[in-house]
Please model this.
Amino acid sequence: MGRLLVKVLIINLVFIGSLNAQNILQYRLKVGDSMTVNQQATQNIIKEEQGRQHNIQNTLEEQYTFKVLSKTDSTYILNFKFNTFKLKTVSNQLGIIVDIDTKKLLEENDTEGRIFSGLTASDLEIEMSKTGKIISVKGTEAMINKMVSLADIEDEFTKQLIIESIKTDFGNKTLSNSFEQLTHIYPDSLSSNDKSWKNTFTGEFNTINTWQLDKITDAIYLKADCVLNIQIQEEQTQLVLKGTQHINVIANKKTGFINEMTVTAEAQSPKNLNNPEETPTIITSKTTYKIQ
Model:
């Protein structure tokens, strides 16, 4: 009878341990796994300029694919590729400022379109921890050089200016920060008892995020309330905006990768009487990510 009790106890402990392992909040990807993400974002910027309201709307649509190349006990190596990229910026004062769509046929004089066609013709390599923290991004220099080479710009000085400009949005650090806002959704401590935790996102948009595990059923449901700090370098001044951001995630229970994520944010810069050059600004945005 005693042996039977011990045997039952061992079976129960193994079962509980297996259940807890499945509920640990982390990625459980396999080599060869491929995840294609459709991202849509709308950002509205309202500036008060000399008594006039300047409205700027940025609309972004992207599709990209992550593929697991290899894994260790604590990290993954992922191949990353942009499939499509569409960006449109419209101003109520200036009209259409930017209009890029890599799915369109290129016109002969479309230098901007040629540059961004290089974005979808390049592959990057990402090293990511099992909690989603981005350790490194490789290949951005080759990607940027390809983007500029496709523009057929002969003047070397102009080339370098364009390279430096592209680096601000597609350099290693910028893309690392951008990927992490999608992937770093799990706690760095892998305890199965974690119900709430904090992490930070850095870059032009800095956030302190307080995460909450809502539930684990057929999927993993997470949410985060974030303190948002935005720093924008303008021609003669640095604009600082403060606000909040809210994140809702539904993640695949088997792999840990998102099925769907929604991010909404609002920030503003109060009028600074000590610095009349600073432009009062309000930014609102909504970004959705969905697995295809």
Notes: Confidence is low (pLDDT under 50) at residues 1-22. The chain has five helices and twelve strands. The chain has one domain: 2-291.
